[in-house]
Write a structure and sequence with these properties.
The chain is an alpha+beta fold. Helices cover about 35% and strands about 20% of the residues. It contains ten helices and 14 strands. The protein has helices at about 5-25, 30-40, 55-65, 80-90, 110, 130, 150-155, 170-175, 195-200, 215-220; strands at about 40-45, 50-55, 75-80, 95, 135-140, 160-165, 180, 185, 205, 210, 225, 235-240, 245-250, 255-260. Strands 3, 4, 5, 6, 7 and 12 form a six-stranded antiparallel β-sheet that branches. Strand 13 and strand 14 form a beta hairpin. Helix 1 packs antiparallel against helix 2 (about 30-40) and helix 2 (about 30-40) runs antiparallel to helix 3. It is globular. The termini are far apart.
Length: about 260
């Protein structure tokens, strides 16, 4: 009907955001990402009263603002026990994001965008652990840091562990639903300009329909605070489905149960 979002509404809404960023002296690279998104076809759901773009267009938008990793190898620091498990099972596992040593990473992006109040209460109803446990992660780093003393100390059992090197097969990753991207870190002022780009989009209303990124639960795990930037982390993400076989493990520091694939 005439009350539903139209392509013209979408283009005008994005143009208003672009114009606002121009006043703030954002560089052309940032505005180009918005201009390309402007060309995406707008879809809507009258039941949830939301509008959105095709997942392919959404992925193109986020990957265009992410820093590309063009090396053929990545490395991963881990414990000797983990190496024994890999050799025994002949598999590399990915674990729930709940297993990360810094629990605030699970909701750092939501807090930055003002979608979650800054409470650290474990039982906060704003933390959806069922949803978080669907997101499986393997934290890797740039191949140039394959012999980094700080990383040996922090992630390889204080130097008693191992650093594994993996060759990247991007075709297999894409076909099997994996996401491999470099993490985006805040600057010295704790600003995330890429999230600043996302914020007005998520606040946009088109004829009463709220715009949403359908797969933002994926992209939000590629942002971290400034204090971690020296790690140059590259994240491998996978979202488990009902067909995936997984087991439960007890995490080292927090001593909580989390699924591993």
């Amino acid at each position: 009907t005439s009350d539903n979002p139209t392509q013209l509404d979408w283009k005008m809404g994005i143009q208003a955001i672009i114009n606002d960023f121009r006043k703030k002296n954002y560089i052309s690279f940032e505005l180009k990402a918005l201009s390309n998104l402007q060309k995406a076809h707008i879809l809507y759901d009258s039941i949830s009263n939301t509008c959105y773009v095709d997942p392919k267009d959404e992925r193109e938008f986020f990957t265009s603002i992410f820093i590309p990793y063009d090396k053929d190898y990545i490395c991963r620091y881990t414990t000797f026990d983990a190496l024994e498990r890999i050799l025994r099972d002949k598999k590399q596992s990915v674990c729930s994001v709940v297993c990360m040593n810094d629990e605030t990473e699970c909701y750092y992006t939501d807090e930055y965008l003002g979608k979650r109040r800054k409470s650290r209460a474990t039982k906060s109803p704003e933390i959806d652990y069922e949803e978080l446990n669907k997101c499986q992660i393997s934290s890797c780093t740039h191949i140039d840091l394959a012999d980094s003393l700080p990383l040996w100390r922090l992630y390889a059992d204080n130097g008693k562990g191992v650093c594994l090197k993996f060759k990247i097969d991007r075709k297999i990753l894409t076909e099997q639903g994996f996401y491999l991207y470099m993490v985006n870190y805040a600057n010295e002022d704790n600003r995330q300009w890429k999230l600043d780009l996302v914020a007005p989009l998520q606040k946009m209303q088109i004829r009463g329909y709220k715009f949403v990124f359908k797969n933002f639960h994926i992209w939000k795990h590629f942002f971290k605070p400034m204090q971690y930037r020296d790690e140059h982390e590259i994240r491998l993400l996978y979202f488990k489905n009902d067909k995936d076989h997984f087991k439960w493990i007890k995490t080292g520091d927090s001593q909580i149960l989390a699924p591993v694939i």
